[in-house]
Design brief:
Blueprint: H1 8-16, H2 25-38, E1 42-46, H3 49-60, E2 66-69, H4 74-82, E3 86-89, H5 110-119, E4 127-130, H6 143-155, E5 160-163, H7 167-177, H8 186-195, E6 199-203, E7 214-218, H9 221-234, H10 245-257, H11 261-280, E8 293-297, H12 298-301, H13 311-323, E9 328-330, H14 332-335, E10 343-347, H15 355-363
Parallel strand pairs: 2-3, 2-4, 4-5, 5-6
Antiparallel strand pairs: 1-7, 6-7, 8-10, 9-10
Helix pairs in contact: 1-10, 2-10, 3-4, 3-9, 7-8, 11-15
């Protein structure tokens, strides 16, 4: 899901890249764009989103702690659990009803979250909202849900971070589906989303429209200082974070381009086209189609294969052997005992495929 075709302006940025070890001009170009979109004071580049996760959880994680999310993705869960913490998912109930369409099935269950807090048994240092909800069908999170989760977190003095790899797609879904946002620009919607959180972690390989890169951004200066100390040990100097200056230039440009409304319209419609094609041939998918991928319900598609035999992975292998189609299992193989689903993700690279490519996938 992180393979994008870069624009001519991004390639031009690569040629402009400043490769100075410390204080490279390209870092400040990158920092300015991230600050403009997110509003956060501290910006820390990393070579991928999982590196940002590792740095963040190294600060807030530890034994006896519990990270709460609408759904952790696999590396997010793994980085949290590597510190000895527990990763708990509390999506809304309708998120697991794959056949029933809904406007915002990526939401967190706010009532379940409040109940968890009322029990007082969990030491929760951080809440993460994944936008869009990658593990459960690429479903969007509503502005109302972000606002409500933020309100609960602030009442209990718990920092809220957005896993914002697909922030632009989520913003566009809000524009399409949530009352009061139909006339707002995606960038303005994105800014409001970030305003309700205390920070974010991003794999720029998604809505950054690049082939490599990520970042961590926040307002907490103490955490940021710790993050930079950790980064120096494992990523690099804080003004490049494991990336080349040319990568920072490309990310900066990509973050601007991804908020173009015409691009987002094309992006969401392209994904829906694949979903409609599979649905018309009786292939069970997660409804409605998400932003970056179509998710096949492998458990329903292959009822003869039990979960301990990994139906999703069986389908992944069959697709590759039959036609060279690369897909991703999201189920028992990826999440083990934590998996409530057996899905196969058909992620669509950004600005890469033509309609004929999608038609080929449907035919296979």
């Amino acid at each position: 899901s992180g393979t994008s075709a870069m624009s001519s302006e991004q390639w031009a940025g690569i040629m402009r890249g400043d490769e100075s070890y410390a204080g490279a001009r390209s870092f400040f170009v990158f920092e300015e764009v991230v600050k403009d979109i997110t509003g956060y004071k501290e910006v820390i580049p990393a070579h991928q989103g999982r590196a940002a996760e590792r740095i963040l959880f190294s600060i807030v994680g530890g034994k006896g702690k519990c990270m709460v999310s609408n759904s952790h993705f696999d590396t997010t869960r793994a980085n949290a659990e590597a510190t000895g913490a527990k990763a708990l998912d509390i999506p809304v109930r309708e998120a697991l009803d794959f056949e029933k369409p809904g406007l915002f099935k990526g939401n967190m269950d706010v009532q379940a979250f409040q109940k968890l807090l009322a029990e007082g048994k969990s030491n929760i240092p951080l809440v993460i909202l994944t936008i869009t909800n990658n593990s459960l069908g690429g479903q969007p999170v509503s502005m109302q849900n972000i606002r409500e989760v933020s309100k609960v977190c602030r009442a209990h003095n718990i920092p809220l971070f957005l896993d914002a790899a697909r922030f632009a797609e989520n913003a566009y879904f809000i524009k399409l589906r949530e009352a009061g946002y139909e006339n707002k620009a995606p960038k303005d919607i994105a800014k409001e989303m970030f305003s309700y959180a205390d920070g974010c972690l991003v794999s720029a390989k998604k809505d950054g429209l690049v082939n490599m890169g990520g970042f961590l951004a926040m307002n907490n200066t103490d955490w940021a200082k710790q993050a930079r100390d950790i980064e120096i040990l494992g990523e690099g100097f804080p003004t490049y974070g494991g990336l080349a200056g040319r990568d920072l230039e490309a990310i900066a440009q990509g973050l601007k381009e991804v908020l173009d409304e015409e691009y987002l319209k094309y992006r969401i419609k392209s994904t829906a086209y694949l979903g409609e094609g599979l649905r018309s041939h009786g292939v069970p998918i997660v409804e409605p189609p998400g932003g970056h991928a179509i998710y096949i319900n492998a458990k329903k598609f292959l009822p003869n294969i039990s979960s301990d035999k990994f139906p999703g992975q069986a389908l992944v292998c069959a697709l590759y052997l039959e036609a060279g189609i690369r897909s991703c299992e999201i189920g028992s193989l990826m999440f083990g005992e934590n998996a409530p689903m057996e899905l196969v993700r058909l992620a669509i690279p950004r600005r890469v495929y033509t309609q004929s490519h999608i038609d080929f996938v449907i035919e296979v």
